Amino acid sequence: MPYFEHKNGMTPESILQATFGFDAFRGRQRTIIETLTRGTDALVLMPTGGGKSLCYQIPALLRPGCGVVVSPLIALMVDQVAALRQAGVAAAYLNSSLGTAEQRAVEQQMLAGTLDLVYIAPERLLQPRCLDLLGRCEIALFAIDEAHCVSQWGHDFRPEYLQLAALAERFADTPRIALTATADGPTRREIVERLRLHEARQFIHSFDRPNICYRVAERGDSRAQLLRFITEEHANEAGIVYGLSRNKVEQTAAWLCRQGIAALPYHAGLDHAARTAHQRRFAREDALVVVATVAFGMGIDKPDVRFVAHLDLPASIESYYQETGRAGRDGRPANAWLLYGLADVVQRRRMIEQSESSEARKRIERHKLDAMLAYCEISSCRRGHLLRYFGERPQTACGNCDTCHAPPETWDATEAARKLLSAVYRTGQRFGAQYLIAHLRGERDARAARFGHTQLSTFGIGADFSHRQWGSLIRQLVACGYLDVDLAGYGGLRLDERARPLLRGEQVLHLRRVRKAQRPGERTKRRAGIAAEDAPLWEALRALRKQLAAAQGVPGYVIFPDTTLLEMVARRPASDAEFLALSGVGQKKLAAYGAPFMQAIAIHGAGSADTVDQK
Ligand code: ADP
Ligand code: ZN
Fold first, then answer.
1. Same domain, 56 and 114
2. pLDDT of 376-408, one tens digit each?
3. Is the same domain home to 42 and 102?
4. Which of the ligands is closest to the CA of residue 329?
5. pTM listed for this prediction
6. How many structural domains is the chain composed of?
7. Which residues surround ligand 2, an ion (CB under 5 A)?
8. Looking at the structure, do residues 396 and 371 belong to the same domain, yes or no?
């Protein structure tokens, strides 16, 4: 069927505007929609927040029959279906949370052809009963969301996804679209292979997330740093704090609460009910901080997460990018903030060496860690490093990361590094960073005297450097692999092979200069952009949204995302036409929410200067 003969004369544009309330397609959404509507398979790689959902939702509305969306998480399905219903789309889901009667009702709707979209968990879809049902319905398309779950090497592998290949034969005439935000080439090839998408048209987008500001701060007192970061830059906003251990996560959450910040822990050690409850609260509340291990991940669809903070170094750039990618899905400014110090390097290296993995696997993990460390130590654009890691070739510095905001100075560290390496060598390659720093600075203590180290030529040759400067140099030399840490023993430092040319004076070394303790975000601070005089209106709109959402048991952003509320603050709509012109307002939402929001604007928005001109 040619794509322009749609149900009821609808076009992609008319649906975009009337149903979803948006003016224009983003990026290649329009082409993807056309491709799928025409009946051609598609593979879509688009970063989080890029707008993947519309790519199959609109074709499902344009094509005859019901669109089937395979989605791995029940929590996610529930919120997506709620959002679609808010927009007036006939959507439902089939999963284990439904009772028999509810399930039958959905099936009846599918058979009767009255559903536009149905979300189904993969294990359910593959049951003979469900396949049989689908065989008797008119199916508009299959959308396979989070398609990287088919990859056995990835972090989110779901065995059921492998069986989705069966759809290719069983429903040979029905177009399929696979979507993911996971970037790399091998995963992409695996998706094509395993889902039999050889004929699919591929849409590979840049993985850049321009609204996320990437920052790395040198670890000091991490709790105080975190608290300052949240209170100064993200007061009253939602965010995720990642920590490595369950213990740390628990304690940090409790500590934040004592400091007056609403925070909840999330880790795999919590029972299922607690995890579900915490995730649910995070989705539904505007200003909750979740302190979590990596267990908190997939299924976080919340668009207004304003920051992701890492208290510990992630294992790889893949994980880091995935985790930070949960910030700012709505396209508004967001921060990715990472604390980093020598202890992180040592800890991560130890985790690799002490794991049960094969030597081949460890080698890969070491490479991944090295790329992560290089990211932390880099003195050029951080985004550039991330994008190059994923195979992109950004041409310019981004202007929205800490190194772009305040380019770090580099210095010729050759001489200092040689002093340090000599000190390591002369003291017998068995002492840790603190001892070596004291040694270089010529601090006399009992141990130095007992070992006779005060007699060495390296004793006190580095008195012109502060503790912090030596600490930074050691960290950088460890990160770059000139020094190894004795992971089995007490963390003593040893020379690596790579140190040789440096010691012999055959190599010059340039490193980042330590800055005076920069207050995090001093220069790179990003605020929500609400002027003081608009704050009462903003808060009133948020409160109204919360109340409406709670009454229906849905997350607030399903009613209106922050972007729409911000537009209301800026434009103060006072008529249906003005309200409809807001991004994210379609016919259904105008009818449901136009009146209460315009009332709130009339009451709370009157104080501000540019709105007092009464009609
Ligand atoms: P993804 O699944 O790729 O992470 P979503 O489909 O959830 O992204 O879309 C992210 C946000 O962008 C949503 O709030 C969505 O409503 C919005 N969005 C998508 N397409 C458009 C568009 N063409 N114009 C305006 N907003 C859009
Ligand atoms: Zn940059």
1. yes
2. 999 899 999 999 988 888 989 999 999 999 988
3. yes
4. 1
5. 0.82
6. 4
7. 381, 383, 397-398, 401, 404
8. yes
